[in-house]
């Protein structure tokens, strides 16, 4: 192992720390090549733990001095830890001083203190603080921090850290200092500092209690015009949290800083959030509607962490979903509330569920499957997963469903009343929600509900209906099961809230309600019916399960046309499309070019597209075919190229069959006045973009050049990035010759806009593969002057877009995609293990592949695993992938 601990960490082995750290005074002399860090701490023994040496974590540090109560002391360095044995007896606090140096400019891992574009940044979650100074780097050690930063004033005029600025001034030799005090105790993972050439947008706001606060968004010079939306999102977040949960901003100021070199999306450091530029910078010329939406969501997410994660934090990293699952739920609710209209809320819900089903469900079924609260890990960075985040959010959503919106707010209040300022567990949160609602199904089935935290895998909910015309009773038999996952062979029944309704053949709603399934099998009866109803099950996706119900086409068409629940209306369309895709995939005697979609399906899509009662955003979702990865999960044996070919053939069929309807949709939704990223305008642009893509696809088949020409003109004339990029994507994904001209022009227009170039790279690496042409394009892109492996955004834009986002091109018959993947994982691991480990997961589901792909994929994984100096990050992923 190249670094750090190499043993598996078990949740069952948790022990409280042998020492507490009450206060931390940090002094930094910032220099890219050699930063000096003086760490003065007040430390005391934990009276509840047997006396033992103090072991402080540290990585890649140069240790210069250790003093205890001002005196030198003996110590030893052991397995990346500083071990102190001769410490004062008793439980009175003692002073511990540690002086170290580090080299931020050489820190390509972007963990700890590092340099990006000549500025200093930190990332300390999960275990980055140990790369700054020796410390008890664990979330249950919470201390008060005072931080003094010193640096050259000309090079680093802005000096930021957590909390409130209490003093600043000039020093000798052109240097200056700033002193920050955080009034709230926090774990080390929430520490942050920033120093550099930055400018900021400021906004003063008044809270409901009359207190004034300063909001600041810091960016590099030249980017200030792209910060208005981030600031508006931050103000909306502050107002929403105070209105919805009565949680106020608790600092004099709240700061956001953007950097282009960042492993994650953003980080919720107390009062000083550090963001990937991708989730801050936006104006209509450079950002799409999706970018605007993501910025709103991520700004909200990190601000909401101020309470759910910072004021109450995790006892240990196994409890990660305590803060992340809860805060994802909160940011989803925030975005839904801001969307306003019920239709826009439904679109947001569908988008969130799409992520869950295309990313988290496969994770649940793969080698990295783990409970929402994991039981073990080798490298904690590998457990920042869609299971912890998105599935964790669904578990919290089920709690709200079971106790009601007001009951959930009561539970949140009790949670903070009990645990503010403490490091706690997932159990503590669930208990607070249940205790605040003692008569709820959650409280009555509390222990059983907690299985959502302890059992991995996606439950399957099987439903079967039977109508007795004599008695007029409709019976709905329900059963639940969950497949074995690594380390968990047997699964006990979950608590599954099932929102449901019954429709008659004409689409009229007969009944609606909620049933909470707790047994392995149950049967519901509905008397007084005159004919067999159409069941609308799992409305709003009321639980993160796979629904097995043998819907007929007639039933699905009824739901698609009439269901009062928008989610199930969309779901009916997805099921119709998935059933057809699976049928064509399995019927290998029919070539993709000969696939013909049936009249009923095409007409149902035409009705949706032409409807004057449905929002454009909803239409775009229904008319977008299920993702290739989602289709693959419905198959036992997967041929990604066959899936890709069939889905593309279906898209072309829809393009041709609805040609005049697509043309109408494009013309009717193309003009939207002055740009606004609101839900209605965004939906219109999304539908116009989808229409243009289908029109270019149809032109590809017919040889017509009219619509590609219109797409190129739209690309040139567009007044915003959404319309421009949609036009570019229509040309690229349809494979039209005009795409090359548009790509060249796009690069020339935006060569100085890093985030826009990421889109340019990603579009080409993720384009449909026609005759194996994409891998050569990807290799060519890596040689482009604007490509760099060291920037996570740029690496993801090319390598991840190909390996993780383009299965039809990646899973090549000659295994060249797998060879490319293994080379990149190994190469990235020497630069940035976190990014490498994420890439390594592109082959999580290799065991489902058809031969010879399966054998070739295994060989590629084994090649990576054979490297002797792999990081823990990558080794854990590939070892679990190869395990039987």
UniProtKB/TrEMBL annotation:
<dbReference type="Pfam" id="PF17432">
    <property type="entry name" value="DUF3458_C"/>
</dbReference>
<feature type="domain" description="Peptidase M1 membrane alanine aminopeptidase">
    <location>
        <begin position="230"/>
        <end position="449"/>
    </location>
</feature>
<dbReference type="Pfam" id="PF01433">
    <property type="entry name" value="Peptidase_M1"/>
</dbReference>
<dbReference type="Pfam" id="PF17900">
    <property type="entry name" value="Peptidase_M1_N"/>
</dbReference>
<keyword id="KW-0482">Metalloprotease</keyword>
<dbReference type="InterPro" id="IPR035414">
    <property type="entry name" value="Peptidase_M1_pepN_Ig-like"/>
</dbReference>
<comment type="similarity">
    <text>Belongs to the peptidase M1 family.</text>
</comment>
<keyword id="KW-0378">Hydrolase</keyword>
<keyword id="KW-0031">Aminopeptidase</keyword>
<dbReference type="InterPro" id="IPR012779">
    <property type="entry name" value="Peptidase_M1_pepN"/>
</dbReference>
<feature type="domain" description="Peptidase M1 alanyl aminopeptidase C-terminal">
    <location>
        <begin position="553"/>
        <end position="883"/>
    </location>
</feature>
<dbReference type="InterPro" id="IPR042097">
    <property type="entry name" value="Aminopeptidase_N-like_N_sf"/>
</dbReference>
<dbReference type="GO" id="GO:0016285">
    <property type="term" value="F:alanyl aminopeptidase activity"/>
</dbReference>
<dbReference type="InterPro" id="IPR038438">
    <property type="entry name" value="PepN_Ig-like_sf"/>
</dbReference>
<protein>
    <recommendedName>
        <fullName>Aminopeptidase N</fullName>
        <ecNumber>3.4.11.2</ecNumber>
    </recommendedName>
</protein>
<dbReference type="InterPro" id="IPR037144">
    <property type="entry name" value="Peptidase_M1_pepN_C_sf"/>
</dbReference>
<dbReference type="GO" id="GO:0008270">
    <property type="term" value="F:zinc ion binding"/>
</dbReference>
<keyword id="KW-0645">Protease</keyword>
<comment type="function">
    <text>Aminopeptidase N is involved in the degradation of intracellular peptides generated by protein breakdown during normal growth as well as in response to nutrient starvation.</text>
</comment>
<dbReference type="InterPro" id="IPR001930">
    <property type="entry name" value="Peptidase_M1"/>
</dbReference>
<keyword id="KW-0862">Zinc</keyword>
<keyword id="KW-0479">Metal-binding</keyword>
<dbReference type="InterPro" id="IPR024601">
    <property type="entry name" value="Peptidase_M1_pepN_C"/>
</dbReference>
<feature type="domain" description="Peptidase M1 alanyl aminopeptidase Ig-like fold">
    <location>
        <begin position="457"/>
        <end position="549"/>
    </location>
</feature>
<dbReference type="InterPro" id="IPR027268">
    <property type="entry name" value="Peptidase_M4/M1_CTD_sf"/>
</dbReference>
<feature type="domain" description="Aminopeptidase N-like N-terminal">
    <location>
        <begin position="78"/>
        <end position="190"/>
    </location>
</feature>
<dbReference type="Pfam" id="PF11940">
    <property type="entry name" value="DUF3458"/>
</dbReference>
<dbReference type="InterPro" id="IPR014782">
    <property type="entry name" value="Peptidase_M1_dom"/>
</dbReference>
<dbReference type="GO" id="GO:0006508">
    <property type="term" value="P:proteolysis"/>
</dbReference>
<dbReference type="InterPro" id="IPR045357">
    <property type="entry name" value="Aminopeptidase_N-like_N"/>
</dbReference>
<dbReference type="GO" id="GO:0008237">
    <property type="term" value="F:metallopeptidase activity"/>
</dbReference>
């Amino acid at each position: 192992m190249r670094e750090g601990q190499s043993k598996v960490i078990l949740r069952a082995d948790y022990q409280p720390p042998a020492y507490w750290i009450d206060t931390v005074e940090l002094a930094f002399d910032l220099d890219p090549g050699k930063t000096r860090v003086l760490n003065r701490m007040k430390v005391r023994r934990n009276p509840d733990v047997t006396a033992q040496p103090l072991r402080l974590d540290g990585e890649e540090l140069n240790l210069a001095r250790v003093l205890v109560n001002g005196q030198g002391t003996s110590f030893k360095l052991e397995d990346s830890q500083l071990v102190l044995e001769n410490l004062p007896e008793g439980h009175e606090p003692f002073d511990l001083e540690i002086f170290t140096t580090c080299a931020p400019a050489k820190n390509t891992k972007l963990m700890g203190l590092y340099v990006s574009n000549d500025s200093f940044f930190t990332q300390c979650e999960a275990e980055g603080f140990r790369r700054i100074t020796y410390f008890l780097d664990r979330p249950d050690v919470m201390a008060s921090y005072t931080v003094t930063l010193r640096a050259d004033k000309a090079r680093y005029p802005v000096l930021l850290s957590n909390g409130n600025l209490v003093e600043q001034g000039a020093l000798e030799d052109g240097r200056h200092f700033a002193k920050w005090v955080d009034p709230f105790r926090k774990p080390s993972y929430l520490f942050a500092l920033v120093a550099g050439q930055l400018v900021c947008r400021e906004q003063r706001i008044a809270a409901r209690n009359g207190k004034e606060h300063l909001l600041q968004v810091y960016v590099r010079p030249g980017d200030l015009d792209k910060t208005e939306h981030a600031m508006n999102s931050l103000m909306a977040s502050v107002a929403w949290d105070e209105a919805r949960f009565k949680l106020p901003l608790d600092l004099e100021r709240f700061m956001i800083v953007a950097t282009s070199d960042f492993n994650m999306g953003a980080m919720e450091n107390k009062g000083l959030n550090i963001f990937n530029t991708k989730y801050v910078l936006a104006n209509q010329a450079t950002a799409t509607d999706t970018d605007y939406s993501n910025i709103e969501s991520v700004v909200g997410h990190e601000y909401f962490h101020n309470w759910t994660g910072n004021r109450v934090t995790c006892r240990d990293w196994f409890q990660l979903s305590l803060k992340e699952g809860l805060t994802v739920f909160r940011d989803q609710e925030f975005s839904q509330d801001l969307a306003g209209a019920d239709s826009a809320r439904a679109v947001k819900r569908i988008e969130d569920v799409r992520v869950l089903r295309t990313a988290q469900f496969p994770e649940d079924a793969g080698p990295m499957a783990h409970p929402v609260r994991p039981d073990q890990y080798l490298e904690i960075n590998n457990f920042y997963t869609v299971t912890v985040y998105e599935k964790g959010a669904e578990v919290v959503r089920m709690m709200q469903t079971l106790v009601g919106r007001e009951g959930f707010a009561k539970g949140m209040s009790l949670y903070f009343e009990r645990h503010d300022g403490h490091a706690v567990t997932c159990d503590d949160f669930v208990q607070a929600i249940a205790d605040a609602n003692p008569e709820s199904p959650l409280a009555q089935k509390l222990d059983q509900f907690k299985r959502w935290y302890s059992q991995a895998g996606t439950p399957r909910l099987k439903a079967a209906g039977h109508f007795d015309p004599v008695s007029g009773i409709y019976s709905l038999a329900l059963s639940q099961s969950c497949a074995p996952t690594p380390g968990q062979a047997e699964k006990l029944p979950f608590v599954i809230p099932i929102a449901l309704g019954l429709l008659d053949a004409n689409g009229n709603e007969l009944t609606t309600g909620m049933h909470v399934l707790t047994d392995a099998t149950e049967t519901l009866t509905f008397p007084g019916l005159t004919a067999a109803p159409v069941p609308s099950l799992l409305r709003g996706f009321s639980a993160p399960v796979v629904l097995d119900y043998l819907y007929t086409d007639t039933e699905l068409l009824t739901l698609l046309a009439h269901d009062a629940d928008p989610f199930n209306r969309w779901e009916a369309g997805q099921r119709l499309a998935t059933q057809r895709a699976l049928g064509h995939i399995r019927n290998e005697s029919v070539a993709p070019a000969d696939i013909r979609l049936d009249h009923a399906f095409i007409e149902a899509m035409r009705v949706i597209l032409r409807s004057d009662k449905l929002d454009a955003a909803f239409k775009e979702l229904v008319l977008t075919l299920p993702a290739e990865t989602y289709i693959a999960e419905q198959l036992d044996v997967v041929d990604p190229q066959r899936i890709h070919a069939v889905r593309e053939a279906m898209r072309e069929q829809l393009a041709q069959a609805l040609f005049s309807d697509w043309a109408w949709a494009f013309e009717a939704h193309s003009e939207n006045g002055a740009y606004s990223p609101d839900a209605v305008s965004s939906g219109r642009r999304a539908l116009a973009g989808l229409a243009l893509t289908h029109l270019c696809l149809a032109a590809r088949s017919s040889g017509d050049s009219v619509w590609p020409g219109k797409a190129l003109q739209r690309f040139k004339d567009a007044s915003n990035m959404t319309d421009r990029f949609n036009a570019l994507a229509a040309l690229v994904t349809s494979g039209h010759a005009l795409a090359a001209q548009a790509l060249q022009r796009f690069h020339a227009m935006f060569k100085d806009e890093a985030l826009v170039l990421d889109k340019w790279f990603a579009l080409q690496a993720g384009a449909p593969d026609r005759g194996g042409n994409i891998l050569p394009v990807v290799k060519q892109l890596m040689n482009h002057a604007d490509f760099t492996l060291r920037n996570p955004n740029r690496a993801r834009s090319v390598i991840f877009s190909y390996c993780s986002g383009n299965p039809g091109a990646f899973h090549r018959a000659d295994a060249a995609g797998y060879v490319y993947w293994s080379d990149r994982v190994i190469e990235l691991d020497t630069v940035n293990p976190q990014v490498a480990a994420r890439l390594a997961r592109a082959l999580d589901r290799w065991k489902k592949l058809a031969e010879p792909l399966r054998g070739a994929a295994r060989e590629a994984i084994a090649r990576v695993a054979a490297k002797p100096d792999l990081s823990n990050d990558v080794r854990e992923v590939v070892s679990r992938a190869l395990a039987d």
